[in-house]
Design brief:
39 strands; 5-stranded antiparallel β-sheet
C-alpha cells in the first residue's frame, strides 16, 4: 500500500471560461517513518487527460531526506479548456515511499525489488475489450496492451516491510449491448519450465472501479494487480494467467414475453400439479389467468414480472408458478390459459401475432375412457352373457397400459350360454365382424383402429349350449367410450 499522502488542487472558474496554460501544484508527503524522492515517482496518464498539457515532478528539498516532499506541477492545455461544469482530472501516480534508514545515505539501499513476471491470456468473450494495461510501479513493464497475450515483467519496487504492492491496472470494457455478468478475474492456468512453484497468493486482483449502464449492470471494470513481495514470480517460472469471466447481453430497453410452457395438454383425471413457465426478457411484465368454465381457478388471475433466475443468464429468464388441478373423476374439464403482456412489454412471435388477441391455450382433464363388450340376444329361452368392461387412459395406445394390474391389450374371452329349451344353429359363414347385422344398434360402429375383435367363433351347433370365443385387441383409447354390442342371433339362431 502507498506509504504517503497526496494533496488535491481545486480551482474556481466561471462557467464557460477557458483555462489556458495555467499551473497548479500537488504534493506527495511521506507517512511517518518513510521518505520520498522525485526519482521514485511518475505520472503515467498525462496524455490521456483532456485539458492537461504536462505534469512535472521535483523534490522540494533533498531527495530522501527526512523532511523532503515531492511536488507535482500540473500545467493546463494552452489551446484552451472550457469549463461548463465541475471537472475532475485524476493523475495516475506510480511509485512509493521508502522506509527511513538512518544508516544508509539517502536511504538508497532501503528500496527493494521482488520478481513479478507472467503472461495474461485474454479468454474473455470477444465483446469485451482490454482497453488498457498500465504499470503502477516503476519496476514493472507492460507489453502487448491491446493484444493477446499481455506481458507483465520486471520486479515491483517496495520498501522494507511492505507485502502487497500495487503493480498494474487492467481496464476492461464490454460493448454497448453486453455486460459483465461475473466480474473478471485472473485464474492460474499453466506453470512450467523448471517446475517452479508459484504461491497461490503471489498475485492478487481487486476491483478498483467499475461502470454501469442505466439498468445498473456492469459494463466496464478496472482491476488492480497486487504483487506479494514475499512470494516472487520469477521469469523462469513462465507463469500464465487466464483473464476469465462471464458476459451476457445487457437487458434490452424493450422487453418481451417470449413463450409459455405447461407440459402435456392432458391432465391426470385423479388430480395433477403443473409448473407453468413463462419465458422472456428480464423485466418483462404480464398478466396470467387460468379458467375452468369461464371462472378463474383459485389463485388466479396474477400479474407478474420476470426476474433473473437459475442458469438462464443471456438477458432472459423464466417465471415459474406451480398450479394444483383437482380430480375430475366423473366429469371432464377443460382449462383455458391466457397470457397478456402489460406496460411496455411486447410479445414474442412464438406467442402469436399481436393482432390476433390475447393468446389462449387449453389443457384438458378427461374421464378415463372405457371399452365395453356386450351382447344382444334373440329369443327368451336364454340369457346373454354379462358384459366385459376395460378401463383405459385418454389418447394412449392400448399396449402402453400393459403395466396395469389385471389389464392386457390382447386378451382371450370365453362365454358359455345355456338355453332352457330348444337348440342353437350356428352359421360359421357369418362370423366376420364386418358383416351387416353383427352389431346391434345399441352399441357403436365397429372401429378396428381403436379395438379389434379377432378369432370370433361359436361351438354347440344342434345343442342347447353355445360356447363363444373372442379375442379382443385394444389398439388405442381416445377420449370417449366405445361399446361393441354383439348380436348373437346373427350367427347362432335359437329355435
Amino acid at each position: 500500500m502507498p506509504n504517503y499522502t497526496i494533496t488535491t488542487k481545486t480551482t474556481g472558474e466561471p462557467s464557460g471560461a477557458a483555462i489556458n496554460s495555467q499551473s497548479g501544484e500537488i504534493f506527495i508527503t511521506p507517512n511517518s517513518g518513510f521518505v520520498v524522492g522525485a526519482s521514485d515517482f511518475s505520472v503515467t496518464n498525462v496524455g490521456s487527460l483532456a485539458g492537461i498539457a504536462s505534469a512535472s515532478i521535483a523534490d522540494v528539498g533533498t531527495a530522501f531526506a527526512i523532511d523532503n516532499i515531492v511536488k507535482i506541477t500540473v500545467v493546463t492545455d494552452s489551446s484552451g479548456f472550457n469549463i461548463t461544469d465541475d471537472a475532475v482530472r485524476s493523475l495516475a501516480i506510480s511509485g512509493n515511499a521508502r522506509r527511513f534508514n538512518a544508516s544508509s545515505a539517502n536511504n538508497v539501499g532501503d528500496l527493494l525489488t521482488s520478481d513479478f513476471n507472467f503472461t495474461i491470456n485474454n479468454n474473455l468473450d470477444s465483446t469485451v475489450t482490454v482497453t488498457s494495461v498500465t504499470s503502477q510501479n516503476s519496476g514493472i513493464t507492460i507489453s502487448g496492451t491491446g493484444s493477446n497475450p499481455i506481458s507483465v515483467s520486471g520486479g515491483v519496487q517496495y520498501s522494507d516491510g511492505d507485502v502487497k504492492v500495487l503493480a498494474a491496472d487492467i481496464e476492461l470494457d464490454a460493448t454497448s449491448t453486453n455486460i459483465l455478468d461475473d466480474l473478471p478475474n485472473l485464474a492460474e492456468n499453466l506453470l512450467n519450465f523448471n517446475n517452479e512453484e508459484i504461491s497461490d497468493d503471489a498475485l492478487t486482483t481487486i476491483v478498483k472501479s467499475s461502470t454501469q449502464n442505466s439498468s445498473g449492470e456492469t459494463t466496464g471494470v478496472t482491476l488492480s494487480l497486487y504483487a506479494n513481495t514475499k512470494h516472487p514470480i520469477p521469469a523462469s517460472a513462465a507463469a500464465f494467467f487466464d483473464l476469465a469471466g462471464d458476459t451476457r447481453p445487457a437487458t434490452p430497453t424493450t422487453v418481451q414475453i417470449k413463450n409459455i410452457d405447461f407440459g402435456s395438454e392432458i391432465l391426470n383425471p385423479y388430480g395433477d400439479t403443473r409448473q407453468i413457465k413463462v419465458y422472456g426478457d428480464i423485466g418483462a411484465t404480464f398478466d396470467l389467468d387460468i379458467r375452468e368454465s369461464g371462472t378463474s381457478i383459485t389463485g388466479f388471475p396474477i400479474s407478474e414480472t420476470i426476474v433473473k433466475s437459475g442458469s438462464l443468464t443471456k438477458g432472459e429468464s423464466v417465471f415459474t408458478k406451480s398450479v394444483d388441478f383437482a380430480s375430475s373423476v366423473g366429469a371432464a374439464k377443460t382449462y383455458s390459459i391466457t397470457i397478456d403482456e402489460t406496460g411496455t412489454t411486447t410479445r414474442g412471435s412464438a406467442l402469436g401475432d399481436f393482432h390476433s388477441g390475447i393468446p389462449t391455450f387449453e389443457i384438458n382433464q378427461y374421464v378415463n375412457p372405457k371399452f365395453t363388450l356386450s351382447f344382444h340376444r334373440t329369443g327368451v329361452a336364454y340369457s346373454e352373457p354379462a358384459s366385459i368392461v376395460v378401463n383405459g387412459r385418454p389418447n394412449i395406445d392400448g399396449s402402453v397400459l400393459n403395466y396395469l394390474k389385471d389389464y392386457s391389450s390382447v386378451k382371450d374371452y370365453t362365454f358359455t350360454i345355456v338355453a332352457g329349451s330348444g337348440t342353437f344353429t350356428v352359421n360359421s359363414a357369418k362370423f366376420a365382424v364386418t358383416d351387416s347385422g353383427m352389431f346391434h344398434t345399441d352399441g357403436d360402429a365397429y372401429d378396428d383402429s381403436r379395438v379389434s375383435l379377432l378369432g370370433l367363433s361359436a361351438a354347440g351347433n344342434g345343442t342347447n349350449t353355445l360356447t363363444l370365443s373372442i379375442t379382443v385387441m385394444i389398439n388405442k383409447f381416445t377420449t370417449s367410450d366405445l361399446t361393441y354390442d354383439i348380436n348373437i342371433g346373427h350367427f347362432a339362431v335359437h329355435s
